[in-house]
Amino acid sequence: SASALPADVEPLSSRPLVLLQDTAVPPEEAIKQVQDVPGVYAVYDDEETLQYCGISRKVASSVVAHLEDLPELTHALRVNALPGATREQLQGAWKAWMQESISATGRVPPGNEPGERKWITRKKKPAKPEIELTDGTDASKGQNMETLLKEVVAKHPVVLFIKGSRTNPECSFSYNILSIFEGYKIDYETINVMDERHNPGAREVLKTLSDWPTIPQVYINGEFMGGAEIVEEMHRNGELKPMVVKD
Question: Is the predicted pLDDT of residue 127 greater than 90, yes or no?
Answer without folding.
Answer: no
